[in-house]
Amino acid sequence: MNKELLNQAIKCLQIRDVIPEAIDLRVSDNYEPAFPEHDNLVLQYRHGIKRLNTKTYDNNGKEINVLIAHYECALRILPPVNNDAIKDSEINSEHDHNIEHNNEDVLIELIAVFAAYYEVNADIQKESIEEFGKYNVGYHVWPYWREFASSMLARVRIPIVSLPLYTIPE
User: Fold this and answer.
1) Which of 4, 45, 77, 170 has a CA 20 to 30 Å removed from the CA of 96?
2) Which H or E element spans position 134?
3) Residues 71 and 113: beta-carbon distance below 8 Å
């Protein structure tokens, strides 16, 4: 993490809004929410910047520069793992939390892309924007993702799943 670049971005950017822009929910034919057979379901998740772009808007004759950060969040629910060698700490390490499974094993998969809008208040280097994208955008998007994922999983009758708090990537 380059703190100098990150601090420059923090000084130049102001969060304006976070909105979902793409949603994909898939429920397996093998999952019957009315007759749940699975205890100790396995949660896998990943998240990260998909792309960053800037735009200039005209607001009553005044130009406003905006950074739009597209941040993808995904999770999937699997039946319990029979392999005792896989521990929770292994599932929850890094920011790509995947275990090898066949796609037929996936009971539910939820993917959402959020657009985080930032007003750009001063000139900013591309490298600062990229550093900000890696380390700060997720912090702004994560509360929206946690609420959205919890709501969607409740709608498909998955027992309560609590996504962890956001952690800054190493």
Assistant:
1) 4
2) helix 126-135
3) yes
pLDDT tens digits, 19-73: 999 999 999 888 877 766 666 778 888 999 999 999 998 888 888 999 999 999 9
For the chain, list the domains and their CATH numbers: 3-155 (3.10.420.10)
E strand or H helix that includes residue 149? helix 137-155
pTM: 0.81
Among 75, 80, 42, 72, residue whose Cα is nearest residue 141:
72
Beta pairing partners, 55: 66
Classify 91 as helix, strand or coil.
helix
Number of helices (H) and strands (E), helices first, in the chain? 4, 4
Query: Which residue's structure tokens are 């946690």?
Result: 146
- CB neighbours of 24 closer than 8 A, spacing ≥ 6? 109, 110, 111, 112
